[in-house]
Amino acid sequence: MPSTPLHDMQAFQAALKSSKHIIAIAGAGLSAASGIPTFRGAGGMWRKYDAMSLATPEAFSKNPSLVWQFYHYRRETALKALPNAAHFSLAVLSLASARENVAPDATFTLITQNVDGLSARALEQTLSAHTAQSDVQDEALKLLEMHGRLFDVKCTSKSCGHTEFDTTSPICASLAGTEALIAAGDAEPDIQVAELPRCSKCNALARPGVVWFHEIPLHLRAIRSLVNRADLCLVVGTSSTVYPAAGYASQVQENGGKVAVFNLERSSGDEEANFLFLGPCEETLPKALG
Ligand code: BJW
Ligand code: ZN
């Protein structure tokens, strides 16, 4: 069992300062203060549906109209949302020239399960406020969006597979306004497949470029190598119930690294953490990271 005092901010900051390879694993709680609903618990319903049951390949095959309406609603919500203080704290940690409480030569990578793009926007804004070219060149190494991106639109035809980043609002005319049908029990329109988003290359049905259950998450090779060398792992706003992300913190500990959990409430596996900061991460992270 870990022997470090669980809630000791000074001890955490000493660990932060002495770490060489830091990673953060983030989940939906990171974006909760930006108004993005979480998956499980209070935020996990969309209309009358359990959000988890819509985020599957089976749901898309069975009812692409319903699943596209769900993702259209989430795209519109994310477009209106702004990164919060927790996103910015993590973005600052990425920038050697901006951060203070970390060793000058330490590395940091944020591995996020979130698809809302808010961490990328926080990183872009933080980068543009700090002009050092060396920071800009390393940007791709600092954020890995392992469950894809809401704004990637991906062809369903295996022979094509074209994906493009598209923030058009609405993504297609037939979905316009469907995001407003939020009253529980409202009948959603049954949109014909021909009217749903289509691939710009081959005109096949397109799907959201996110990773559903039983699909392979992205950037796994890079993540494996980061997890293997990490000596500190921050676990931020995730229920730690979805694999492989849920297994990364214990892998870091097995390699001798430390784990710090930032969550509103108790979460799976947090009894093993070296540090546990309960509360909204938009408050606890800025305090902890300085
Ligand atoms: C706050 C807060 C605030 C609120 N401040 N905190 C091993 C064992 C068992 C099962 C498996 C296994 N390996 C694989 C599986 C199967 C499956 C799985 O994990 N199933 C489990 C449910 C048991 N995994 C997969 O299928 C994955 N693929 C896979 O494993 O491929 C095989 C393979 C892997 C590796 C190598 C080779 C092969 C794919 C998983 C894809 C998950 N997709 C989704 C949808 C993405 C698209 C979309 O967004 O629509 O990803 S599901 C959903 O869950 C979404 C999330 O990213 C993910 C995690 O949820 P998250 O972020 O933790 O959210 P919540 O809501 O659960 O928690 C929020 C937390 O925030 C709570 O704790 C709150 O308290 C907290 N909070 N406000 C701080 N202000
Ligand atoms: Zn195509």
From TrEMBL:
NAD(+) binds at residues 27-46, 113-116, 237-239, 263-265, 281. Coiled coil: none annotated. GO terms for molecular function: histone deacetylase activity, NAD-dependent; NAD+ binding; protein-malonyllysine demalonylase activity; protein-succinyllysine desuccinylase activity; zinc ion binding. Residues 2-290 form the Deacetylase sirtuin-type domain. The lineage of its organism: Eukaryota, Fungi, Dikarya, Basidiomycota, Agaricomycotina. In contrast to class I sirtuins, class III sirtuins have only weak deacetylase activity. Difference in substrate specificity is probably due to a larger hydrophobic pocket with 2 residues (Tyr-71 and Arg-74) that bind to malonylated and succinylated substrates and define the specificity. The active site is at residue 147. PROSITE patterns: SIRTUIN. It comes from the Eukaryota. This is NAD-dependent protein deacylase. NAD-dependent lysine demalonylase, desuccinylase and deglutarylase that specifically removes malonyl, succinyl and glutaryl groups on target proteins. Has weak NAD-dependent protein deacetylase activity; however this activity may not be physiologically relevant in vivo. It comes from Tricholomella constricta. Keywords: Metal-binding, Mitochondrion, NAD, Transferase, Zinc. Substrate binds at residues 71, 74. Its cofactor is Zn(2+). Belongs to the sirtuin family. Class III subfamily. Belongs to the sirtuin family. Class I subfamily. It catalyses: N(6)-succinyl-L-lysyl-[protein] + NAD(+) + H2O = 2''-O-succinyl-ADP-D-ribose + nicotinamide + L-lysyl-[protein]; N(6)-glutaryl-L-lysyl-[protein] + NAD(+) + H2O = 2''-O-glutaryl-ADP-D-ribose + nicotinamide + L-lysyl-[protein]; N(6)-malonyl-L-lysyl-[protein] + NAD(+) + H2O = 2''-O-malonyl-ADP-D-ribose + nicotinamide + L-lysyl-[protein]. It is found in: Mitochondrion. Zn(2+) binds at residues 155, 160, 199, 202. Its EC number is 2.3.1.-. GO terms for cellular component: mitochondrion; nucleus. The keyword Mitochondrion applies. The keyword Nucleotidyltransferase does not apply. Binds 1 zinc ion per subunit. Gene3D superfamilies: SIR2/SIRT2 'Small Domain (3.30.1600.10), TPP-binding domain (3.40.50.1220). InterPro entries: DHS-like_NAD/FAD-binding_dom, NAD-dep_sirtuin_deacylases, Sirtuin, Sirtuin_cat_small_dom_sf, Sirtuin_class_III, Ssirtuin_cat_dom.
